[in-house]
């Protein structure tokens, strides 16, 4: 196993994935997947929705379960975690309970992309998301946008397709709920019959 310094040297260019263009992420993705051991887990919209209505889970705990799945498979001595929860200790404790190897050293921090290994993982994740969006785009005859609620193209696609392709949307997404509610609202005309 490479020493941390050697890994960091090989991850030159790793930084916050949100500050990179799609083209830059793709180039770094190709470099990093040859450099580090990694595992990708794609979480489907239905699984996210289930976590949000669950009594036991929420998005942070779902992320902890997926993180534990990766750590359990790769079995590193040390794992750097970009903490999604405001409470790092509570999140770290919850994550540790899910680990097979309780001796893994966990570095749980906010804004952990300052560590090259976390930045590289973020780039791999974001490039994977980009590829998934590209695959969805090929499937449909109309532009779908990047999938973010603030994007006009994504909102147009959602408005026109929320009920035609339910498997690709999070039902817990407020934008999806708004379109569903508009469709289900009775108009004044329906009462005048």
List the helices and strands and how they pair.
Elements: H1 4-10, H2 22-32, H3 45-53, H4 59-74, E1 78-82, H5 88-97, E2 105-109, H6 116-139, H7 152-161, H8 174-184
Parallel strand pairs: 1-2
Helix pairs in contact: 2-6, 4-5
Describe the structure.
This protein is 51% helix and 5% strand. The chain is mainly alpha-helical and 193 residues long. It folds into 2 domains: 4-139, Ribonuclease H-like superfamily/Ribonuclease H (Nucleotidyltransferase, domain 5, 2-Layer Sandwich), CATH 3.30.420.10; 142-185, no CATH class. The protein has a two-stranded parallel sheet with strand order 1-2. Helix 2 (22-32) crosses helix 6 and helix 4 crosses helix 5. It is globular, with a radius of gyration of 20 Å. The mean pLDDT is 89.
Number of domains: 2
Architecture of the largest domain in CATH?
Answer: 2-Layer Sandwich
- SSE string: HHHHEHEHHH
Which class of secondary structure composition applies to the elements? mainly alpha
Number of strands: 2
Average pLDDT taken over every residue: 89
The CATH topology name of the largest domain reads Nucleotidyltransferase, domain 5
Fraction of residues in helix: 40-55%
Which residue ranges are poorly predicted, with pLDDT under 50 across at least 5 consecutive positions? none
| Quaternary organisation | single chain
Cα-atom Rg, whole angstroms? 20 Å
| Count of individual helical segments | 8
CATH class of the largest domain: Alpha Beta
Q: What's the N-to-C terminus distance? A: 75 Å
Taking the sheet with the most strands, its summary is: 2 strands, parallel
Strand content: 5-15%
Shape from CA axes?
globular
CATH superfamily annotation of the largest domain = Ribonuclease H-like superfamily/Ribonuclease H
């Amino acid at each position: 196993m490479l020493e941390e310094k050697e890994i960091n040297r090989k991850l030159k260019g790793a930084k916050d994935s949100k500050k990179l263009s799609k083209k830059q992420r793709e180039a770094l993705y190709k470099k990093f997947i040859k450099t580090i051991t990694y595992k990708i887990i794609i979480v489907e919209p239905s699984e996210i929705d289930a976590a949000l209505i669950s009594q036991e889970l929420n998005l942070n705990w779902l992320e902890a379960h997926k993180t534990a799945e990766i750590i359990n498979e790769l079995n590193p001595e040390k794992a750097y975690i970009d903490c999604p929860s405001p409470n790092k200790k509570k999140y770290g404790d919850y994550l540790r309970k899910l680990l097979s190897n309780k001796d893994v050293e966990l570095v749980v921090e906010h804004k952990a992309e300052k560590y090259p290994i976390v930045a590289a993982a973020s780039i791999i994740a974001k490039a994977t998301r980009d590829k998934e969006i590209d695959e969805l785009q090929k499937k449909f005859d109309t532009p779908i946008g990047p999938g973010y609620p603030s994007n006009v193209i994504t909102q147009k696609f959602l408005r026109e397709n929320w009920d035609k392709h339910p498997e690709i949307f999070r039902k817990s997404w407020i934008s999806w709920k708004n379109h569903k509610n508009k469709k289900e609202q009775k108009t004044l005309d329906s009462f005048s019959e």
